[in-house]
Amino acid sequence: MLSSSRLLIPQRISSTIKPALPKRSISITSKLITPRLNQPYNSHRTLTTINVKMTDKIADASIPSSAPGENFEIRQTHPSEDYTPDPSKSLPLSPARQRLVDDILALYSCEPTIERVKRYTPDCVYDDQFVYANDRYKMAGQWFALPKLFNGSKCERYQIVKDEPGLIQFRNEQSWTFKVIPKTATINALVSLSLDPKTIDSDFIQVKYHKDQANDKDYSHEGLGFSFKKWQADQVMKHMDSEEVKMFEADKGAGKEAVKQYGSGASEGNAPVKEL
How far apart are CA 126 and CA 132, in angstroms? Predict the structure, then answer.
C-alpha cells in the first residue's frame, strides 16, 4: 500500500518501488492443509505441497468455506509487470459479480462504507507490496484510512481478465491525488479476488483473499520486508478511532493460520508464470 505517516493504501506509487524480497539460493517448499470436502476444517489434517493444482482448487471454489483466508492465496508471476488495462477486452460479469467489483473499486476510490467492507469475510487476507492484513478489522482500518491520506482517487479504467467460479482477476488503473503533496500518481496493478465458496451463488459475494500485484513478481512472505508489511497493518489500527472501524473489532479474533512462506517471489517460490 502507499504510505503517508503511518497509514497505508493498496498499490504501488511507481515502478521503481519494489517489494523487499529476500534473495536466497535455496527454494523453500510451502505446505498447505488440504481438508476433506463436506467436513469441518481441521488444521491438523495431512499437509500437501502448494502447486498449480491449489490455484485450480481456488478457481474452482472447491476449498471449503470454513478454511481460513490464508488457504485462498493465488500464486503467480508474469512475463511482464505491465498491467495496463484494455477495457475493450474485458470479460463480462454476472450482475452479482459486477456489483462486487464495483464495491471493490469504490473502496480503492476512497469511498469506504461498512457495507462495502463487509464484502470481505472476517478471516480475510489483504496482501500487497506494503501491507499484509490478515483479518477484516485490519482491512477496515486500511480502507477507512484512505480519505485521510488522499484528496481523491479515481479508477481510470479496468479490464476483467479472469472470471472463474472462485476467482475474479482484473487489471486496474488508479489515479491517486495526495493531500500533503499536490501531485497525482497513476498506478497499474493486477487485482486477484479469491471468493468465499459459500457466497459465490448469492447476491452478496464475499472475498477470502485480496492480492494486489504491481510488478511481475509475487510475494515471498519472508524477511525484513514482510515483517514491515505485517507491522504496518497492525499499526494502522492504533491510529484509527472511527466508529465504522470499530464495527469490525470482533473480527480480530477470526480464524487464522501461520503465514505461508515461499523463499522467493519468483517461479521457484510456488508462483508459476502465467499469461493473462
Answer: 6
Distance CA 71, CA 55 (A): 10
Question: Per-residue pLDDT averaged across 100-115, rounded?
Answer: 98
Which set of grid coordinates corresponds to residue 48?
Answer: 500437501
Which residue in 216, 171, 218, 162 sits closest to 194, CA to CA? Answer: 162
Query: d(Cα 15, Cα 36) in Å, to the nearest integer?
Result: 42
Predicted structure pTM score: 0.76
Confidence check: pLDDT of 56 > 70: yes
> Strand 167-178 to strand 184-195: parallel, antiparallel, or no bridges (unpaired)?
antiparallel
Strands (E), the chain: 2-4, 7-9, 31-33, 47-49, 120-127, 132-133, 150-164, 167-178, 184-195, 207-213
Q: Which three cell numbers stand for residue 68?
A: 481460513
Q: What is the pLDDT of residues 189-199, one digit of tens each?
A: 999 999 999 99
Smallest Cα–Cα separation from 167: which of 39, 49, 63? 63
Single out the residue of 223, 174, 162 nearest to residue 10, CA to CA.
174
pLDDT for res 190: 93
Q: Name the residue among 171, 160, 267, 164 with its Cα closest to residue 218.
A: 267
Give residue 38's region: left, alpha or beta (phi > 0; psi -120 to 50).
left
In the predicted model, is pLDDT for residue 114 greater than 60? yes
Q: Please count the other Cβ atoms lying within 10 Å of the Cβ belonging to residue 147.
A: 14
Bin 208: left if φ > 0, else alpha if -120 < ψ < 50, else beta.
alpha
From the CB of residue 204, how many other CB atoms can be counted at a distance below 10 Å?
12
